[in-house]
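Thread amino acids onto this structure.
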């Protein structure tokens, strides 16, 4: 059998149980057809996110037991700072309790209402933090990244033409920095090439504009560069990561992804003045600069996890497991964004449910049906998450892609469980025209996909009678 081989043994297990379809129907209705609100004990396989859901290693747990809980300048922070500087290379390392806190601190210090922040594609919290400052979050991904079925090695690349157009339209003074998300989560977990990073870095450097990475899946991106980009096959993942970050001026990171922990994050900067402003805000909202809202034991777990994530045997297995799930879905006739990404499989809901318009949230319909059919939780990456108003015309803009992300937690699920996920997706796809669209009953002012309440359009059941 051609199966990825687990580079670990399982020491601790957590019991899960399946609930009946009737109970799932009741849970879904009570949750307003929003699976974020379904309690975890009613979930069988949870692929909502790979953020904070990884299984930590024995060495990480051991590191937590020796964590130093001193308020200021603990030995755990010293190790945390040393390991981050070794990989990322930036002068100032600022711990935060998770990635969106790092984003909030950076944007509060550097972004004002007249600003525009280009990115390949902003993820939800990044976009929300930019827009919370009154600024424009501008997506500049390459055209290949907007074609769900195109097979190309680096669909996360930023378009230099779109970036140049942004500078021309808005002017240099309105762009405080440029961001690149590695891998490109909202675009299907697609990697960004080193060649593209070099081009964007040179473009920004010529204009004196900083380049900031959203680095939460940096090791997976580096692995793809090693596997796919000419000239990198003989370089280690760590060496590739070091080169990648040497081309930027800082990064935000949710350590809950590629640092293999359940909580934590950081902001790195080379600009000392900006770092000082951020640190002053950190003290007010998060904590002292050497713990930033994290316990010493969590700092220690991050430091250890950053070493483990660059293990190439682990990365080959982890990305291979995700690809195996994608291949299984395709074999069952469920179309997925191609090629399969690093941390998740993205079901192409627009192709599965072509009869449901984007205004009725086809990806959210698939997500809700996936839970109803098999107790599997994914997440919508489509109009519910990313529909917005055009800043120039005020018209409603739907995203180019309607996706359902099946994010695979690291070192958690077996092949058998993921086969079950694929079979459940196939059952949902078979329902096809019987699935009805959804409409919003209530929504918050921002990040609506987390807490919005929905119902089938016009009321009634989401699955029509055969």
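Threaded sequence (466 positions):
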């Amino acid at each position: 059998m051609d199966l990825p081989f687990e580079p670990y043994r399982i020491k601790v297990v957590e019991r899960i149980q399946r609930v009946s379809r009737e109970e799932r129907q009741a849970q879904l209705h009570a949750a307003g057809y929003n699976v974020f609100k379904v309690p975890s004990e009613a979930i069988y396989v949870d692929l909502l996110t790979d953020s904070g859901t990884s299984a930590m290693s024995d060495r990480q747990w051991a590191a937590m037991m020796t964590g130093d809980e001193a308020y200021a300048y603990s030995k755990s922070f010293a190790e945390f700072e040393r390991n981050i500087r070794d990989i990322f290379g930036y002068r100032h390392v600022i711990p935060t309790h998770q990635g969106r806190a790092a984003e909030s601190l950076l944007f509060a210090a550097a972004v004002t209402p007249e600003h525009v922040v280009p990115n390949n594609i902003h993820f939800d919290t990044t976009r929300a933090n930019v827009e919370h400052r009154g600024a424009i979050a501008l997506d500049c991904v390459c055209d290949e990244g907007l074609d769900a079925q195109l097979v190309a090695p680096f669909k996360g690349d930023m378009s230099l033409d779109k970036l140049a157009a942004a500078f021309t339209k808005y002017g240099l003074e309105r762009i405080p920095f440029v961001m690149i998300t590695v891998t490109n989560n909202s675009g299907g977990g697609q990697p960004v090439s080193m060649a593209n990073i070099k081009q964007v870095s040179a473009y920004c450097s010529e204009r004196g504009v900083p380049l900031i990475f959203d680095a939460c899946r940096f090791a997976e991106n580096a692995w793809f560069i090693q596997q796919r980009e000419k000239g990198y096959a003989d370089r280690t993942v760590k060496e590739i990561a070091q080169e990648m970050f040497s081309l930027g001026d800082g990064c935000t990171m949710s350590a809950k992804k590629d640092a293999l922990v359940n909580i934590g994050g950081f902001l790195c900067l080379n600009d000392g003045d900006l770092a000082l402003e951020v640190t002053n805000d950190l003290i007010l909202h998060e904590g002292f600069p050497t713990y930033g809202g994290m316990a010493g034991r969590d700092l220690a777990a991050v430091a250890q996890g950053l070493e483990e994530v660059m293990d190439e045997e682990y990365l080959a297995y982890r990305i291979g497991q995700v690809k195996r799930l994608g291949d299984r879905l395709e074999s069952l006739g469920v179309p997925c964004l191609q090629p399969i990404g690093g941390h998740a499989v993205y079901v192409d809901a627009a192709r599965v449910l072509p009869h449901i318009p984007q205004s009725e949230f086809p990806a959210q319909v698939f997500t809700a049906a996936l839970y109803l059919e098999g107790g599997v939780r994914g997440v919508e990456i489509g109009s519910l998450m990313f529909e917005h108003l055009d800043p120039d015309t005020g018209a409603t803009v739907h995203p180019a892609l309607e996706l359902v992300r099946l994010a695979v937690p690291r070192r958690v699920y077996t092949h058998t469980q993921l086969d079950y996920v694929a079979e459940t997706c196939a059952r949902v796809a078979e329902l096809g025209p019987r699935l009805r669209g959804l409409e919003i009953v209530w929504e918050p002012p921002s990040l609506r996909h987390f807490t919005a309440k929905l119902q089938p359009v016009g009321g009634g059941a989401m699955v029509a009678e055969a």
